[in-house]
Design a protein that fits this description.
Helices cover about 45% and strands about 15% of the residues. By secondary structure, it is of the alpha+beta class. A hairpin with a 4-residue loop joins strand 2 and strand 3. The chain is globular and about 60 Å long. The C terminus is likely disordered.
Length: about 575
């Protein structure tokens, strides 16, 4: 994979090369067979390689492969819409390529709904802190996950606002009942409406069960009914994001069906398990109230995508839902979920660093904490989870479980076809890895840190491409120094090279934390650092190789020594034995 031209999610860690996926397993090029414990990110619903879905896709390709939704309808999209509307009690459906597109569409749908009702002043959206709704700028702006948002903060709308999540483990007070907690959150939402102006709020967005950010976090009983009451009182729409938790994942077709709502949400978003991994597909469902405004108004939704209502994607999803029904997989998901809850609690709840086990159906999370009594979290620098997940496939969730920065959890969301024996294997594997991590991490890091850093320091100091001699004629402050294509003064030169190197140093540091004992990978990363910082250095427009080597050696040596100095600081974040 070193020669890959794909810009993978990480340029430091090579992804595993899958050569086959069948049933509940993924097969790798190196011969390993991995149990799929999370369906990617809760995507695989009916298992891999189902021949019925493959046959339906081939049949669709032989009839209608693609027609533009601006001019044509197709039978697969019509039948899929009928299926979803019948199950949900909604009125219409829009089909797009993925969850982020669906959230963008839901934002625009809510806005246009109020325009159709002659209420253009409704421009504000309220979502929850520690939420995740998608990766495009609009969807990411709606989120309140600190780490994911950080690089793009200048681009987010000021019309997105946030209230507290319903996260009982971290934020429900010790003396609060569920009813008291719900009332406090409802009062907070009401206060936010009043702060913004009740008639300026377009919609309230929430994940019915929070997925990757806080880890399969269901609301306490009565929460969504209370949120619905606030929205209805002020004429705002309730939008539920079920991209991860919908389409049977919780043991019902829709996760909101567990919440005791008297009617469906105004808008609902589905994804991931809808296509089951066989096709990229997501859906936006809307209620009669919403579609009625459009029918009485413009009669058109000002939104559209090239692959909207794609016939092949819709046909695949239609077959996935058909298989769920014919094989009883949604009820099986519920029953397997009860079994999974039981064994997770039996095998992991007493662990010193397991803080909370939560979820519903086949959508569960285990949260790891540093101190069980105080609920103190692991800081983001520890990367505790990276050292747990090795030889089976499970989703690590987003860093920053409780506050968007700190905390760790794993997310268990296997295919609905998983057996009880496979669930036992998965939980036992997690238990073994977690116990190993907690009992050996400190001694492992003590041993490996100095070995690793000495090897890297030696590699840096004695690498043939790095000169150990000082430059004979130091660069004068009045000289023009060029690094790559950028011209800098001598004083800026170190700063600029430092910034470039720090990017690599962060990756080096992350690889160290995450791998712990992987010497070969660390040495490879160190070599990459040296190669990538070999930029052309010129003095007064003439190449100056020794200046480049001096700067490079100085920076790498300083960075390595700095890492050595952080050992004691790092050890305090390691689990105690």
């Amino acid at each position: 994979m070193a020669s890959s031209h794909v810009f993978h999610r990480s340029l430091i860690y090579e992804p595993l090369l899958a050569v086959r996926a069948e049933g509940n397993y993924i097969y790798l090029q190196d011969g390993r067979k991995l149990l799929d414990g999370s369906g990617g990110a809760a995507v695989t619903s009916i298992g891999h390689g189902d021949k019925r879905v493959i046959a339906s896709i081939l049949d669709q390709l032989q009839t209608v492969d693609y027609v533009h939704s601006g001019t044509f309808a197709n039978k697969a999209a019509e039948e899929l819409a009928n299926e979803l509307i019948e199950e949900s009690g909604m009125a219409r459906a829009v089909f797009v390529s993925g969850g982020s597109e669906a959230i963008e569409s839901a934002i625009k749908l809510a806005r246009q709904y109020h325009l159709e009702n002659k209420q253009p002043e409704r421009v504000n959206f309220i979502a929850r802190k520690q939420s995740y709704h998608g990766n495009t700028l609009g969807a990411l702006g709606l989120c309140r996950h600190t780490a994911r948002r950080a690089p793009f903060l200048p681009y987010f709308s000021s019309y997105f606002h946030y209230v507290s999540p319903c996260f009982a483990y971290h934020y429900k007070l010790d003396n609060e009942t569920d009813e008291d907690y719900v009332k406090r959150l409802a009062d907070e939402l009401e206060a936010k409406f009043q702060e913004l102006g009740p008639n300026t709020v377009a919609a309230f967005f929430a994940e019915t069960i929070v997925g990757a950010t806080s880890g399969c976090t269901p609301a306490v009983p009565g929460y969504f009914k209370a949120m619905r009451d606030v929205c209805d009182r002020h004429g705002a729409l309730l939008v539920l994001d079920e991209i991860m938790c919908g389409v049977g994942r919780t043991g019902k077709m829709h996760a909101w069906q567990w919440e005791g709502l008297s009617s469906p949400p105004d808008i609902q978003v589905l994804g991931k398990g809808l296509g089951g991994g066989y096709a990229p597909l997501a859906a936006v469902l809307m209620s009669n109230k919403v579609i009625s405004a459009f029918l009485a108004g413009s009669g058109a939704f000002n939104n559209g995508y090239t692959y909207q209502s794609h016939a092949v994607g819709c046909r695949a999803a239609l077959e996935v839902i058909k298989i769920m029904k014919e094989d009883g997989l949604i009820e099986q998901c519920h029953q397997r979920g009860l079994f999974l809850e039981k064994i997770l609690n039996e095998k992991l709840s007493d662990h010193a660093h397991v803080g909370n086990i939560r979820g519903r159906g086949l959508f569960w999370s285990v949260e790891f904490i540093k101190n069980k009594a105080t609920k103190e979290m692991y800081p983001s620098t520890c990367l505790f989870i990276d050292s747990i997940i090795k030889e089976f496939v499970i989703y690590p969730g987003s860093k920053g479980t409780a506050d968007g920065v700190n905390g760790d959890h794993v997310l268990i969301a296997p295919p609905y076809t998983i057996t009880e024996d496979e669930l036992v294997f998965l939980v036992d594997s997690l238990k073994i890895n977690t116990s190993y991590n907690s009992s050996t991490m400190t001694s492992l890091i003590v041993m490996m840190t100095f070995t690793m850093q000495c090897l890297i320091l030696g590699l840096i100091l004695f690498h043939p491409h790095v000169s150990s001699k000082p430059i004979l004629s130091p660069v004068k402050s009045n000289c023009t120094v060029n690094v790559g294509r950028r011209s800098l003064t001598e004083g800026q030169n170190i700063e600029m090279m430092g910034k470039l190197y720090k990017v690599e140093h962060c990756k080096l540091d992350r690889a160290y934390h995450a791998c712990g004992a992987n010497l070969l990978q660390m040495l490879s990363v160190a070599c990459n650092v040296i190669q990538k910082t070999k930029q052309k250095v010129t003095v007064n427009k003439r190449p100056h190789t020794r200046a480049r080597r001096y700067i490079q050696r100085k920076l790498l040596t300083e960075a390595c020594c700095e890492t050595l100095c952080t050992v004691s600081e790092m050890l305090q974040y390691c689990p105690e034995s």
